[in-house]
Every structure is written in C-alpha cells, then in structure tokens.
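User: I'm writing a tutorial on reading structure tokens. Could you give me a worked example: one chain, its sequence, then its tokens, then a sentence or two explaining what the tokens reveal?
Assistant: Sure. Here is the example chain.
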Amino acid sequence: MSAEKFDPFISEWTSFSKNPNYNLIEKCLKMAQILEYPELDISKYVEKINDISNSLKAKIGKVKNSTYLISMLNEHLFDELGFYGAEEDYYDPGNSFLNIVLDKKTGIPITLSIIYSEVAKNIGLDLQIVGFPGHVIVKYKDEVILDPFYRGRLLTIEDLEGILNRNFGEDIEFVPEYLNSATAEQLLTRLLRNLKNAYTQSYAYDNAMKCTDMILGMRPESPEEIRDKGILEERLLRYDKALPLLNKYLELEPEADDADFILELIKSVREKSNQ
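And here are its predicted structure tokens:
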C-alpha cells in the first residue's frame, strides 16, 4: 500500500486510546474532541459524571444490596435527571458523542450504557457493558440483564431474542456468547463505526474517513476497515489510494461475502484511473 500521509490527530487518538491511564469515559470524550468538538474540555464532562454519581451516593448511604442500588440508579438517572433513549432521532451523530449525550440527556444504547455503567461503578456496583448484536446493554454478574436505553428495564431471554429478530430477522438465534462483556476497544470501535455509517449516509466522506483511520489506529489489520477505507478513497476520487486497499481486503478475506462487489469496484477503479 502507498505510504500514508502523517495525520497528527490520528496519531494523538491512537496514543490516547491505547493508554491504560485513561478510562473509557475519557476515551469517548477524546473521540468527540478529535472528530467534532476541538474545544471540548474533557475534565469538565468527567466532572459532570462525578457530580451525577456523588448526588446518588448521598442518597443511598452505605447500602450495598445490588437490587436496591440498581433501583436507585434507575430512579436517579431516568426519573430525576431525565435521561432517555433517543428513539425519534436515533441516527443523529450527536447521540454517539458522550458530551452531547450528557448535555441533552438523550442517547443511543451504547452511549447510555457507558454512562449508566460508569455511574454504577462509582456507587460500588460492578456492571459490565455487553456488546449485544444491534443493541448494547449491561449486565450485573451473569443473571441480571438491563437496558439503559429503556430506563434500565430488566431483560429476559425472550426480550433478547426479540431484539435479534427486530434487527436481523428470525433466522438468527440467541447464543450465550452474545452476553459476553465488551472491551473498551470493542466499544470505541462500535461507536466509531456508528459515526462512520452516519457520515457516509450524509456524504461527509472526509469525516467517515477519519473514523475509519481512528479504528485502524487501534486495529491496523481490520479487514472491514481496510475495505471501507478503500471504498471511501474511491468515493473521494483518489483511485491510486483505493486500489491497493481494496486488493489488500481481498488478500485478507478471499472468501468474503462481498468479494464479487469488491472485484467489480476494483475493475471500475482501474478503468477510471486509466482515463
């Protein structure tokens, strides 16, 4: 592949996202700062979450019962502070930026789950974020599954099957692995892919490219991102950059479901670059 032009923002992101001294909240805010909000004060929004946690701590005292803590967490976030799931403008890119979600008190499953689990951690409740297909949720141990997008409601296996069916049709079956805890890198990647798709749909290809480069900063050999970078380079008419990326994708994933589409795109890119 041709040598990439050095991008200080991508370099900064890669270094920040891989630094164990920063937590998931800080990394999400750094993402927002690099992509859309260069003046964003990360410490200010960390303090907002701390304030939410401290006001809840003051109410619960020293009680350690998990059922009580979850109930108080839901009451505090959703009844008193008014956080809610953004059903009407679900695909608004702002719903993927933690600073906007904290300001507007509305977001999508992944951003609400990140805030929910962070506040829970600050009151001594260890909730794990679950990268469930199509709808991020949280769990307490392995028995209690909660949905912060719908006010922290308790989910059954039937509810989870319903989420799968709505998002992917009835051919996909629930498997226990879908409830594995997500890593910070997986969550950051998922957020960036949400944003990449939103930017692509609104023809903001440069922003979509930045998302792809940020994922590649964390996962340099991700076939999906190499492919998408190639597709974006083609849409930006940079055929000399698109071709090696698309070829690299097929080299990594020769049996990919979209191999025929990529082969056709390569053929088209070659024809255009020879004109």
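What the tokens reveal: The beta strands are 84-85, 106-107, 127-130, 137-140, 144-147, 153-154. The radius of gyration is 21 Å.
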